[in-house]
Structures are given as C-alpha cells and as structure tokens.
Amino acid sequence: GHEAILIIGDFTAMIGDPSGRSVTRPQLTHDQVLSNATSYQEQAFKILSRDRSRVVFNGEWFQSMRFEEVIKLNSRVTLQQMLVREDFRDRLDQGHPIRAHEIQYPIMQGWDSVMIKADVELGGTDQLFNIMVGRDLQRDEGMPQQVAMVMPILEGLDGRQKMSKSLENYAALNESPAEMFGKLMSIGDDLMPRYFKVLLREDVPDGEHPMDSKKSLARRVTARFHSVEQADIALKEFELRFSRRDLEHANLPLFSPEGPACDLVSIVVEAYARCFEIVKSRSEARRLIEGGSVQWDGEKIVEPKASLPPGSSGVLKLDKTHAVRIP
Predict the structure, then answer these.
(1) Measured between alpha carbons, how far is 187 from 231 in angstroms, rounded to an integer?
(2) Please, which residues have CB within 8 angstroms of residue 228's CB and are 6 or more apart in sequence?
(3) What is the pLDDT of residues 179-204, one digit of tens each?
C-alpha cells in the first residue's frame, strides 16, 4: 500500500555523503550527478515497480532555497549533534579535517524526508544518523516521524571494505549475466556465510562443497536480476571457461591490442578497460602477472616485462573470472 519514492540527490551528491568515510569525498559536478542518476534508476527499477514508484530530485527544493532559509534550517541542529557521529569523531581523533560543507549532508538528507512526507525511510546501517535527523526535522514541522528501516552493509568482493564502485569491489545490478555471475564466483570462501545470509537470507548448506554452494549463490542472484534462463547460460559458460578450463571453445570477448605496444602489462590494462570497463593501473596489472593470474594459451606468465609477439592470436586469461580472445 505504500508508494515508493526514489530520491535522486542531485544537490546532496555534490557535497558527497561523509557516512563511513575517513576522508572528504571529492565533489561532483551537477552534470556528473545527472549522468550517474541514469544508472541509479536503471538499477533501482530492477527491484522497484516503475509504475508504482515516483522519482524526485532534491534539487527541486534546494535549488530555490534562499540563504536565509539555509541558515534557519542549520539552526535546528547543533554542532554537538553532528560531531557525535562515529565517522566524524574518528576523523577528529586522527587529526583529519572535516569540511564545513560535509556537516550539511545529514541536514539536507533529513530535509528530504520532510519534503516528501516520508513515513518509512530505507537505508544502510551507515545511514541511521541521517535518517534520525529526518525524524527530528519532521517532528519540528509537526509531522508524524518516519520509521527508520536500516539494512546491513554488504562487504565487497574483496571481503575487506563495503561494496563500492569507487573501490572496484562491486557487482552492479545492470551488468551482464555473465559478468555478474563471474564476479560472485570470485568471492572468497570465508565470505560465503555473509553473502548467503544477506542476499538469500539462508545459511550455507551443510556438507555441500564450497564451489557448489558458490555456484548456487551466483546462479540464484543472477536469476533474480536477469532471468533463470540467462543465469543457467552464465553457469554453463562459467563451467566451460573455468571449471573445465576449456577456454579455447568458450564465448570470449574479442580483443585486438591497439597501437605498437605489445608488452603484457599494457595489454592487460587495455583488455580490462575495453572488454570489461574495469580500470586497472599498471601496478595492479604487474601484481596479477607476478601472482600467476595471467595466462597465455593455458601457460602462466609471471614475468611483468614479458611481451606478446606482434600478430599473436590465442586466449589471454586476465584472472580467474576474466579472459579475452586475441584473433
């Protein structure tokens, strides 16, 4: 019976949410925010019903706000309230700066709740403070206070930090079935209980081989955001590529190195960028090579200074989930 309202923070995103951050976020331009908003909606409507949802931009109310109104809004909260946040407190203790504009973020997010008359606000556990500011502002306006519904933060594919595009440890909802499946297969076995609990609300099956459990997880999540048929195809393709190590007959992206450079580091960086839209630095590429992740036609190459002969053709495996075919 609720109407889902998706708020695009075209104004708040130009500040950058300080939640869980040890340093100030880089500020985005309005054009960058609007570009990101297209991707946000594409992913959100894999979950929300587009016909039963409303999209609003908080620039609709902040853009017309006079500076006098900004001052009045700021007067409703105290500096002590803002600095009680754990992330701000940690930065103070460590001598890291807190910029004045960052303190505006929870106030602005709270005002969003007033403007849309929210009765339930969903967010990660790192958003609890911001949501509670919204409750305080609603109370001041004589409105019913929204319910705070917070969700657990999922660790990224690296198992160390929260899943984040900026940390390149994420699986996006609008990625291809094969890419989504492959990324989920790359998580460590120690992450399996957490992913099963958060994504499937289940425990890892007792007595099942970790690889079988991981395939089940990847297939079910891929089916949720794509289809059962596409998830089954991704599973078969993964087994063909990696479980059976039959890359020669797998459907791999075609990649032709550009320019005269044929050193392996340059080729690995370029292949990630062009075929998978993954940005890898040259130092990251060297580490992959030295760690034995990179293979040329089934043979590991561990020498970063290695190169491929001009005109070479074959299969280049970049890591355990990415490979390309050089025609």
Answers:
(1) 18
(2) none
(3) 999 999 988 889 999 999 999 999 99
